[in-house]
Every structure is written in C-alpha cells, then in structure tokens.
C-alpha cells in the first residue's frame, strides 16, 4: 500500500481532467488563433475556462490570463508590474518566506535597480503587519505575499494586508501567490484588495505546465514574453487549450462541496498531528489548527537528516518532501524554517525587546575608531588606557585596536557609508583622543552602521529577527546554557532552545531617571546572569556623558556628540565664560560640569559652537541641529544648554577574549558584557568598534565548536517550569532590583 503525502508538491490528475484533455488533443485539436472551424471550436474551450475562473473569483473574464504555471504567473506579475510602474517608484515589498519563484525574481529586480524589503515573520511563519506598515514608503509600487506557505502551511492575513496597503497608498499594487491556497479557500480578489493573483493547475489535480494570473483592469503591467500577441498581447505563444480546459475542470471539481472537503482535510490533519507528536524528538512547525492550511503539515525530527528520513519512508511506500519540492532536488536548509528560527544547524534567531531599530547602537552619533597606521598604535593604546584609568585589560585593548582596520574594511564592504573626500576616508577627533582617528557618517554613525548590517542580515534566509520579544530567563542544564525562555509578541511564553546563546541586550540606562538610553533597556541580561550565578565584572562602572541637551520634557535625553567638542565647541558657565578643557575624558569633563552647575546654581551649562563653521554644523551634525531647533535653539546663532546624563555601562557579564561567559555555551557581547576594553571609563567611539570586534570573535569560536555540540547536550534536563514566570511584571521588577542592589553592593566592596 502506498501513502502519497506530497500533494503540496504536485497532485494526481483527476480522471475527468485527463478525459477532457485527451478529447481536445485528439478531436478538437485546432489552434485557437486560427480562423477556421477547428480553431473556433478550440477557442470555445479557452472562453469556457476563462468564464469559469472569472465566475469563481468574481472578476471579469478579460482579467484572466493563462500561463505555463505558477512560476510564470509570479514572474509576469512582479517583473511586468515593476517595469511598467518604475516611474512611480522603485521600492518593492515581499516576505522572507516566499516561494523561490518570487524570491529569485525579486533578486533579479534588485539587479535591475529596484530596492526590495523582505518582511520578517513570526515563529508561526506569519508576516509582521507592523513591519509592513513601516516598510511602505513613497517609493513603494508593489507588495507581494503568498496566501499559504508551501512548507509549513502558514496562512497570511491577506485581507488585513490589502487594507493596510489601501490605507497607506491605494496606488500600490498587491500581488498574491495563491498557488497553495486556490482550491482550499474561497478567494475573491476585489473583496480582499488583491490586484494580481497567481494560480497553478497541478496543485489542484489538474495538469502540469498550466496556470493563470488574474490582473485587475486598473493594473499597469508589461508582458515578459513576446511573439504573436495572444491574450491581448499580454502572454504570447500558442494557447494551451487542453491544459487550460483541464485546469478549469479540476477547479470545478475542487470547488464542488468545498467546505465539506476542507472539514475532512482538517480532520485528517488533526489525526496526523496528534499521532506524530507522540514520536520522540519531533517538532510540528507552525500552527496546526483552523488558522493554518488544511493540507500542509511540517515536522522536524531532531538529529535526522531530511534526505535520510525521506528515503527511509520511501522504502515503506510513504512519499513526502523535505522542504520545498517546487525547486531543484539539491539538499538545502529550508529558508522558510530558517526565517521561523527553528533549531536547525547554523540557523540564527535574534530577538529584540522593542522595535529592531530601537537599540542604543542606533543612537551612537560620533563614530567608530580605527587605527590610522602603525605609528598611531601607541597613541591609540595610551588614549584608551588613560581614559579607562589604566584599569583596562591590555590584551583586550590590543585585540580591539589591531582588529579595527579589518572591521572597517568589512563594514565598507557591507555598504556602510563612512564620510569620504577626494583623498579617501575622513576622520574626526573626539574628547580623550590625541589625534583624529574616528570614522563617521554625519552625526548618525550608529544608525548608519546598524541599519546597514540589519539590511544585510535580512537578506540572509538563515537569520530571523523577532521584535517585541523579551528574554525572561535562560534555560540552564548540567552541561550549560540550552537557550532562553521568551515572552513572545503575542504575550505567550516560549522556550527557544539553541546550541549557543549570545546575550547582546545592551546596558541599563532604563533603570535611571536621566539617561541617553532607550527606556526599555533595563539590564535584563545582567539580572538573569546574576540569578544564575554567572560571573560579573565591575558592575558599578557606569559612565555619565557630559553633554546631553537640557530639556524639561520627560523621557530619554538627547546626546550632543563628543565630536562637536572635537570640532571646536566649548563649554561656558552662566556668564558665558569658558571653565574647562572640553577634550579631557568624559568623567573629567562631567565632574567639571557638575562643579560649575553647583557653583552657578543652574541645572545646566552652555555649549557654544561659535568656532565651528555654520556649513560644517549643518553637514556634519544635521541630526543634532534638527533636535536643537525642535527644542527652540539654533546652534549656528546661539549657545545651547547641556547637562550630564547616564550614558554607558563599562561593567557587565565577565567574558574572555572570545566573549564566552562563565557558563558553558553562553556568550555575551556589546554593552552587556565586560571584556576589559574600557576599564573604568570608556574612550569616546570605542564602543561600536569593541562590540563588533568581540562579537566576531564569539562567532568564530561558536563556529569551531558547533561540530562537537549535539542536541542531546541541549535537551538533557528537566522541562522548564513556566509557573515561576506567571507574574511577569513582578519578575521584571525583581530583575531591576537585583541589578541596582548589586551595583550598590559593588560600590561598597570598592
């Protein structure tokens, strides 16, 4: 007995379909473009097929175009519309889990000069609507999204997407790949806001080599095939009469008593899922209920290669696909599963507590340090050590400085736009530096670097980014860290198991009333590490930035970059007299400002940019200029008020030179870690560089250790007791208290 479980790859033709096609091929075989009777008879089949699909979709017959299949339909929709609407904009949007016929077409369009945004999906494979809203811009001309994912059966919120598009800009076209949805759902493009719809015949028990594309009459589209001008010039080539007619017969059969058929499919799916979950080391991917596709189930088996399992089942007469069967049979990791952060080898899941661009790295203004030349090494080393009060780890400092040129080269290769002139890279100087050695992009260097790296990350199918997802705890067993417990964007708790876990959760500014940090960055990783007995280092080393824009408004303080003083700005007291050396390390300048504020009895001091040319202020510091104007100050004409505020954290989770913590398989990088680079006080613009240098070293070591790390080490332990996370609000307050108490305790120990 055979069990063919691969109907999402292709289906067996119905007998009614083959009978119809054989009759046409042998009896009514005329060319529908011919004027004689045979041609006229053949053309009737085309008209009948169009009439059925138009009625089924509740659209006009003239809006139906037959193609050679789903791939051609998708290509025609994307390329045809992109090229026809290029004058209106060059921005396209799709998701990270589309079929190859969409993703590869989008890559082709990128080569033609179009900009493509790949929307992330959640752990169930559903697209982020918030990400869609943010992605749509004035240049957006088309959004493409599959109705049902061909691998995991995720059903996208098509009507909601259509509504968002119409609200944002009704001129934007909406293409839906319905190849896995047609025949399983009632689809009405006009009601759902769909402008273009792709369908394939062989997914619905029809013939291979035939499909259709619905194109709303309002759509401006160009053909991609040229020849005899068939189908109103949209799709040249002799029409496939038996194929088109056969697909129509198949569709009629599918939609007869559709609801009853779908109920039966869901019952079969529930039965299968219930049984497979009883098997050891299995995982059902994505949703399985009525909010998933009725015909698709995705299952992962830990420690078993997909092709081995596939052939083992084949030997027993059971036929399944590994990943997408609609591409070549070359083994590869599923890009869909990758985007859904499933625990597969070399797959990366990044979670962020808020929006992905609301991290402190985005706020970094001044720049990133780079060793200018060998003659600069001693000076750079000394500047870093002196700023850190010689409490730095000399080896860590050496590693960072020696790695800086390679890091800069890699960033340039990724597309980071550092300032240049005719002679090459331009460098600026900041406080504590003996010479200019800081690469920059206007006054938003952190944003330029981080957004570029995120863009590159989104292009990789093995990287998933989950927003509004909070780490609640790490999962610990006898062998080390096994992953994390996270509160997902929908409020549910989920265990995310991983061979290696990297903490990169930033500092602790959110614990302080006045800080340049985002308010949601509250030292969560520090608290969790303390609760698990992970070694800490200098947790009381907290840096105050001397110059933030004074405001009586609540919330995060806006930083006035050290580069401003590096370019010539000076600090003035209430009488507009200079009172200190502005280029001393941050803690020294901060102390001088506090001293002057106390002396003058004022809540701020003045910063004058009088010595900086107006054009340089506008070109080098446009963001600072804008923020000052919004606060009511024009820095090109007057002084601005500044005040010290909590800015950076030099201590943290103790790590070695490869960023490994005291817990096995757990790493920490960036501001949440302490590798000794900064000592007691961070030198300006060392943070971006330090984060990337030691993150890269962590990645290298993890890659080396992966072959010797198996899932038995990860899954060996008691199940996570989610009951202890019931009061999440109370737990998060507890975490804040733990960190603040440890800071005070560390101060007393000193």
Q: At the fourth CATH level, what is the homologous superfamily of one domain?
A: Type I PLP-dependent aspartate aminotransferase-like (Major domain)
Count of alpha and pi helical runs: 23
Strand content: 15-25%
The SS-based structural class is: alpha/beta
Short structural summary:
This protein is an alpha/beta fold and 750 residues long. Among the domains are: 15-255, Type I PLP-dependent aspartate aminotransferase-like (Major domain) (Aspartate Aminotransferase, domain 2, 3-Layer(aba) Sandwich); 545-646, Flavocytochrome C3, Chain A, domain 1 (Alpha-Beta Complex), CATH 3.90.700.10.
Provide the fold topology.
Layout: E1 3-4, H1 15-26, H2 37-57, E2 64-67, H3 70-84, E3 91-95, H4 100-111, E4 115-119, H5 129-135, E5 140-146, H6 158-168, E6 173-177, H7 189-192, E7 196-200, E8 211-215, H8 241-255, H9 258-276, E9 282-285, E10 298-301, H10 306-314, E11 318-319, H11 335-339, E12 348-351, H12 360-363, E13 368-369, H13 377-387, H14 394-414, E14 420-421, E15 424-425, E16 438-439, H15 445-458, E17 463-466, E18 470-477, E19 480-487, E20 493-497, E21 501-503, H16 524-531, E22 536-537, E23 542-549, H17 562-566, E24 570-572, H18 586-600, E25 605-608, H19 614-620, H20 622-631, E26 640-649, E27 652-654, E28 666-668, E29 673-674, H21 687-705, H22 711-715, H23 728-749
Parallel strand pairs: 1-11, 3-4, 3-5, 5-6, 6-7, 12-17, 21-28, 27-29
Antiparallel strand pairs: 2-8, 7-8, 9-10, 13-16, 14-15, 18-19, 19-20, 22-27, 23-26, 24-25, 25-26
